[in-house]
Design goal:
Rossmann fold, alpha/beta, 16 helices, ABC transporter involved in vitamin B12 uptake, BtuC, two-stranded antiparallel sheet, elongated, 2 domains, four-stranded parallel sheet
Length: 449
C-alpha cells in the first residue's frame, strides 16, 4: 500500500513542475497592468468602425474625406474605411494619406467639387490636426474617429512577437548551456562563439561574391560558421576531459581566444554586404489561420522545433539519462558503465554548435560583426538558472530553460516599456538570478535534511 502524500509534498511537486510558468504569467499580467495607456485605434478594424459611424449618421448621401497620416496601420485604416463607405453606397469618398498641408488641399478640393463635406474619417492622430479649421465650411468638428481605448503596451501583438524574437537566439543557445550545466559544467565562451560563427559565415559569403552570393555559397558559409563554433566546443570538451582542466578556466580561455580570432578574421570591421537570401534566414514566414494573416519570425519557429527535439532527447533517450547521470555523480556513472568523458565531450560540442547557430541568426539579422554576443553568456546562464537547472548538476529541464529565457525577456522588455534605465535593469536582473540560485540552494538543503 502506497503511503499517503502530504499536502506539503503535493505543493512542492506542483511548484517544481509549474512554479516558473506561474511566475511568467504573473510577470505578464503585472507588466500589462503597469503599461496600460490610452491608445488611438488604428488599422483596418478602426477604419471600418469609423466608416460605419459615418454611414449610420449621414446615410448614403454623405460626402466624406478619409484622412490619415503615414504611421503604421494608417494605410490599412484608409483602405478599410474607403471600402466600407463604398459598400454603404456613400455618394462621394476621397482619401488622403500624408501630411497636414496635403490633407488641407484634399479637403478644400472636395469642398470645391461637392459644395460641402459632411464628415472626415480620421485616425486619432489626424483628427487632432488644426488645418481643417482653415477650410471654409469645414472644421475640426467634422472629424469622426474611434475613441481612444486603454490597452497595455506590453500586450500589443507586435510587442509579444518582438519579445519572442528577442528571446529566440539566446534561448536556442541556452539549450546547449542547459546540457552543460546539468553535467555540473559551465561554458563562458558562447558569446564569443556567436561572434566567431557570425564572422566566419559572413567572411565565406564575402569570398563567394558578397551580396551576389548564391544559395549553394550561403549553405556552405552557414556550415562553415556552425563547424567553427562546434570545433571550439569540441576543443573545450577535450581540454576538460583529457586534461581535467576546470570548465570555468577552459571556457574562459576559449572565450578570449574566440573573440580575438573573430576580431582578427575581419580586422575588427563589420561585414554587411550579405545577400537577401541570407537576410531572410532571420526574417519572418507568413501564416494564414482562419482568415487571419500574420508573420512569425523564423528564429521563433526554429526555437520551438529545437526545444521539442531537445526535450525528447533529454527525456526519452539513453543519451539524456546519461547526461543526468554524469551531473548527478560522475564517478557513480563511470562505475555503472557510462562513458563520462564521451558524454561530456558531446555536450560541449553541442553547446558550441548551438552557439554557432545563434551566430548565423545574428549575422542574418544584423551583420558579420566581431562585437556580436558580448556578455551574451550571462543572459544564457541566467535563463538556464532561472528555468530551474541546478548549477550543482544533475537537475534541470529543457522546457524550464525556455520558460526561464521568456522570464528574462519579459522582465527586460517590461522595464524598457516603463523607461527604467539600464543600471536599474542590471540590478533587477542580477537579483533575479541570485534569487533563483538561492531557491535552488534551499531546495537542496531541504532535500538533504
Amino acid at each position: 500500500m502506497k503511503p499517503a502524500t502530504s499536502k506539503t509534498q503535493q505543493w512542492t511537486a506542483f511548484t517544481n513542475d509549474y512554479g516558473m510558468v506561474l511566475v511568467l504569467l504573473v510577470l505578464v499580467i503585472a507588466f500589462s497592468l503597469l503599461t496600460l495607456e490610452q491608445m488611438d485605434s488604428t488599422g483596418a478594424d478602426a477604419g471600418r468602425e469609423v466608416a460605419r459611424l459615418i454611414a449610420d449618421q449621414y446615410g448614403d448621401s454623405a460626402v466624406v474625406v478619409v484622412v490619415t497620416g503615414q504611421k503604421d496601420g494608417d494605410e490599412e485604416f484608409a483602405a478599410a474605411a474607403v471600402a466600407e463607405l463604398q459598400q454603404a453606397n456613400v455618394t462621394a469618398v476621397s482619401s488622403i494619406s500624408g501630411s497636414p498641408p496635403q490633407a488641407k488641399k484634399t479637403v478644400a478640393a472636395a469642398v470645391a467639387r461637392h459644395g460641402r463635406i459632411d464628415a472626415i474619417a480620421a485616425t486619432g492622430d489626424s483628427a487632432k490636426w488644426t488645418v481643417f479649421d482653415r477650410v471654409a465650411g469645414v472644421g475640426g468638428e467634422k472629424c469622426v474617429s474611434v475613441e481612444p481605448r486603454k490597452w497595455p503596451k506590453f500586450a500589443k501583438a507586435e510587442n509579444i512577437l518582438n519579445v519572442a524574437n528577442q528571446t529566440a537566439v539566446y534561448a536556442i543557445v541556452a539549450i546547449g548551456m542547459t546540457l552543460v550545466i546539468i553535467t555540473a559544467g559551465i561554458d563562458l565562451s558562447v558569446g564569443s562563439l556567436i561572434a566567431l560563427s557570425a564572422v566566419t559565415t559572413a567572411t565565406v559569403i564575402q569570398m563567394s561574391g558578397g551580396g551576389n552570393a548564391g544559395t549553394a555559397a550561403i549553405v556552405v558559409s552557414c556550415v562553415a560558421g556552425l563547424l567553427a563554433a562546434a570545433a571550439a566546443g569540441f576543443f573545450s570538451g577535450t581540454m576538460i576531459t583529457a586534461f581535467r582542466v576546470p570548465p570555468f578556466i577552459v571556457t574562459l580561455a576559449v572565450m578570449l581566444m574566440a573573440r580575438g580570432l573573430a576580431r582578427r578574421i575581419t580586422d575588427e570591421e563589420s561585414i554587411s554586404d550579405l545577400p537577401q537570401q541570407f537576410r531572410n534566414i532571420a526574417g519572418s514566414t507568413e501564416w494564414s489561420v482562419l482568415g487571419f494573416e500574420f508573420g512569425i519570425p523564423n528564429p521563433v519557429i526554429l526555437m520551438i522545433v529545437l526545444y521539442i527535439i531537445a526535450h525528447l532527447l533529454m527525456s526519452k533517450t539513453i543519451f539524456g539519462r546519461y547526461v543526468y547521470a554524469v551531473g548527478g555523480n560522475a564517478e557513480a556513472a563511470r562505475l555503472s558503465g557510462v562513458g563520462v568523458k564521451k558524454i561530456t565531450l558531446i555536450v560541449y560540442t553541442l553547446c558550441g554548435a548551438l552557439a554557432g547557430l545563434g551566430g548565423i541568426l545574428q549575422a542574418s539579422k544584423l551583420s558579420g560583426d566581431p562585437k556580436l554576443g558580448v556578455m551574451f553568456e550571462l543572459d544564457v546562464i541566467a535563463a538556464v538558472v532561472v528555468g530551474g537547472t541546478s548549477l550543482m548538476g544533475g537537475q534541470g529541464r529543457i522546457f524550464g530553460t525556455l520558460i526561464g529565457a521568456l522570464i528574462i525577456a519579459v522582465i527586460k522588455n517590461g522595464m524598457n516599456l516603463m523607461k527604467i534605465g539600464s543600471p536599474d535593469q542590471q540590478i533587477v536582473l542580477g537579483a533575479v538570478v541570485l534569487i533563483a540560485v538561492l531557491i535552488d540552494t534551499l531546495k537542496r538543503r531541504g532535500a538533504g535534511s
